[in-house]
Design goal:
about 475 residues; alpha+beta; 3 domains; 3-stranded antiparallel sheet; 18 helices; about 45% helix; about 10% strand; globular
Amino acid sequence: MKANIGRTIDPLRKNALPFKIKAVDEPHKKVNFTFRDRDGVTEKIALPLHFAMFERALTYLEANKAGMVRLGAKVKPPYDQDTVEGQIWRQPYVCPTPFKASPHVCDIIALSGLAEYGRVKNHRTGHEVQAIGFTGEYKKAPEKSLPDTGTKTKEAESDKAKIVLKYLETNPRRTYCDDCLSDLLDIRPRQQINQICNKWLKSPGKILRQVNTCSVCEKIKLVNAVPPGQPLPIEAGVSPKEISHQPVVVSDDIEHSVLNYYSKMQQDPHHRYRSWEHCYLFFQKHRPFRTAETKDLANLHLAFFLASWGMYRGKTFLLWKDYRIFDPIVDALIDPEYETLYHLDPAVLSKDSTVTSLVFQLAKNLSDIFTKTVNIVNGRARNIEVTDTLVTKILLGTMACTPAYDRYVNAGLEKSGFMHRRFTQASYRELLNFYRMNSNTFSGLRLPIPNSNFCYPPMKLIDMYFWSIGSDSRPDK
């Protein structure tokens, strides 16, 4: 895969779209790639493939090398266990939310010469379907014995720490993020810079690490600088307030708030919080709603979820509309252009501004739909107000691509020291950075959605956390 980074590749499957490997991310054990849209020009970002997916697929193919095995036709779980897809998504999942991965994984395996495509009869339906058969010999790489963590390793780390410190001391009034230091000093992978700066330099007080603008890439990130004991220089465009408000959260706080929220549903099987589960699962399992009946149910699920979460009270225009007001909204939500938003990984999204822009493009689209289609309320002509709260609740209840910016989430952001507390790209980026800094804690919160193979997605966990601390902090809750 490394040898083919950046090259457009035609899969061996019939009618499959060309794809391009963008990066082989060894530290995170993922392959990032794009595929060419059916117009033959547009490049679309695909969800990353995890190394574990290839390992599971190859292990299954080798175990069944006497014949062909089905790739698996289902788009969403539960997957048939006698397919490559079923083996990729056996428990425990390699990432929180399943997505159709077997065609892309098998494309790369087939192109490597380890397997070839064919046809096989589906014993359930009797139809011939796409299959793949093992042709090579797959040997799982043995676990590497850990290097001696004694004198040699410590000496190597110490030498690199001296290089980093000398560079920072040579440029005392400049700030450097870990990524830029890694590039400038050719110390790779980047995580080494993180370990060196934290263990060898920050702990003994030789450098400062805090959020500021990197002097090289000019992005607001966690940066390193000297001399110790003096405040880091503030770059143009970054206010001292913005830096001082960078949220610092203890992982125990996140776990406590999220699990406390989740436990209320375990005590009450009909808790209103479950309205989100019902709506989210329906969109995950049944889109693109090929019949009028399923689309009608999608409208109902969305309407009831919004009602459960306060969007049908007061002077809202929704109070005077039936549930089919959401028909054009649902059409927009299942537009193939926005399919990637159903599978967001904030750790990847934080580095991908195009997908972030897609979230806000869809949000504006939903707002425009309401504005264009609703001009009479309770028999009177009226210009309606479409709030960020309504739009983000719709996105949370169907795709879970953003928290819902309601008063409690906004209060939670304020209490946590966030600079941006409205639904803007600046706020969204701040949340992504927050997730990245606490990714280990969020990744460990694999909360199952009852009666399904799905878990609570990352953005819903973020929403649960800020909603909980926001509701606790308001006297009028």
